[in-house]
Amino acid sequence: MGSSAALRELQRDLEAKANDLNKLQKGKHRKESPDQKEVYHTTRRERARPQGELDLLNEDANVYKLIGPVLVKQDLAEANANVRKRIDYISAELYVCCCLDALVGLISVNSLKVYAFSALIRFNWKRLDATLQDLEDKQNSKKDTVSTYSPNCFELATPGSKLS
């Protein structure tokens, strides 16, 4: 029957959408915590302050770096490069966190769409199943009605014969 093939196709679609929903919901839990994002913001602010101070220094100024308990003299250009590189790294990590937040938002929206679509498929599945059941019932009742007639009730009238 064509309708049972349509039902199987709808069932496959429903299962595919349910699998997509499960995958989306599993991916949603991989979101970084909001605390991590705040840590990156704070660290970037902390690194921006020394950068501003280094920018104010003259070329011939002495810059020292604390390594353990010892202050080691460092070139100003090297200090600037190190601080900028650190700020760039932290900014990149913060960008990744923001992108992940946006991605999780999209996943949430898409999972709601998939859930709504699967609910619509379930609703249509029930309607289609009920319609198919009604059609099968009507077809079975027609078979029962046709089988109650005797073959003699459909005699052909020939010229000169009388119908009873």
Structure description:
This is Prefoldin subunit 6. Residues 21-47 are annotated as: Disordered. One of its GO terms (cellular component) is cytoplasm. InterPro entries: PFD_beta-like (IPR002777), Prefoldin (IPR009053). This protein is 74% helix and 6% strand. The protein has 164 residues and is mostly helical. The protein has a single domain (2-136), classed as Helix Hairpins. A two-stranded antiparallel sheet has the order 1-2. A hairpin with a 2-residue loop joins strand 1 (63-67) and strand 2 (70-74). The longest helix has 72 residues, at 76-147. The two termini are 41 Å apart.
Characteristics:
rod-shaped, Helix Hairpins, 164 residues, two-stranded antiparallel ribbon, mainly alpha, 2 strands
Question: Could you outline the blueprint of secondary structure elements for this entry?
Answer:
Layout: H1 2-28, H2 34-56, E1 63-67, E2 70-74, H3 76-147
Antiparallel strand pairs: 1-2
Helix pairs in contact: 1-3, 2-3
Pairing-aware structural class of the strands and helices? mainly alpha
Order of helices and strands: HHEEH
Number of helices: 3
Shape: rod-shaped
User: How many E-type strands?
Assistant: 2
Using the coordinates above, name the CATH class: Mainly Alpha
Strands in their spatial order, largest beta sheet: 1-2
